[in-house]
Amino acid sequence: MGATTAKSAFGQGVLLGLPFILVIVPFGALFGVVATEAGLNLWATMGFSALVIAGAAQFTALSLMGEDAATWLVIVTALAVNLRMAMYSAALVPHLGAAPLGQRACAAYLLVDQTFAAASATYDQRPEMDLRAKLALFFGIATPIVPLWYVSSLAGALLGASIPEAWALDFALPLTFIAMLGPMLRTLAHVGAALVSIALSLAFAGLPAGVGLLLAGGAAMVTGALIETWSERRA
């Protein structure tokens, strides 16, 4: 595809990323507030957001730090929460794996739940897209999301406790995942994996932070693979 097509794909990506602003802004602001209340200074808060750029893992780490957990436990738990990024990466290899190292590194940094969900769904719908267009689409999706994550985190850190509790910014996290998960439940394997994940996450809620999520995620992947294999054999 030519440059015009790549430019068009980038514009489409930006449009796909815009709706996520509705949850990225309050989610980032909430992190800034919570990090400040947990004792992190402005530089530490912004460094956390810029380097980790994974809200669920950041909140998990802050929670454990507030409980004076050991450093190794904070790191391992945050990595467990972010284990889904490895699955996202594997799913994108057929689409972006042939890109130059620098572009793959940039895409890896920008790989968050929202960029994966929107890009993956579009790639499935438009198998005719070439590598340039796919990269342009991915970076377009990230364009309105990532900068606003930084800005909203900064705003939350600066405003801190002045944000009224009545605003209920903590709605952003569950709303984000619900909005992304719904459209992705397209097959029996997807639904089965989701149900197992939900059931085991609730069953393992009493385990140390991160452990239950890790076990539930692993069981959900196995369930999805088994159902997919069974469906293919029947077909």
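The record above closes out task 2.4. Task 2.5 opens with a second protein, given below.
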Amino acid sequence: MISMTPENNARAAGWSLLIMAVLAGFAFGYVYSPLSLAENQPLSAQHLPVIRLSIAAWWGIALLDVLVALALLQLFAPAHYKGATIMAGLRLLYTVGLGVAIFRLHQAARLLAAAQQAQQALEAWLSFQNIWSAALIIFGLHLCALGWLCFKAAQVPTLWGWLLMAAGISYLTVHLGLQFPSTTALSKTLETVLSLPMALGELGFAFWLLLSVRKQKKPYPLSAQP
């Protein structure tokens, strides 16, 4: 059995975050967005294979989210236990919301497989994004909490605290706005503008976690700021 030392927790979190980025690029960028935005092209049984692959990718993301939450909890607990618990709890709560959204994709696939009304399948398919968007508000809070923990951990450069905070605030700004019809258009514009900080914070932190383990002088276990 692999001992979950601080270094192993850093590796687990870092690699999981990078794999999640690849899976999300496939599940959302390659599959979901083109189908949901295509005009006059309703869902049909021919879309089932790629939809099922997308569902598998989303469940992979959800499982990795749980792993990241637990790894980061163990990693940051020595620096600030209560803060680390809140941070991990927020990510797990977000994962529950993601799971609820994924079940809507399952419903869309079942409707298509049973040759039922395409409109019902499309509504189930599109509702995935609404539920996921609401869950991403919690994810934004998780990133803000993780950024705060970076300030509290003596060995983590404050740069990552600022970048994760910026990413978290970006998620909050965009997805809070998407909950209200009057601000949806503005929020979609902001999403395009803020896509870089939203991605840079967590992905950059993932690379830092992996590189920090490779250094001769390892910064783990993390300790609180003096």
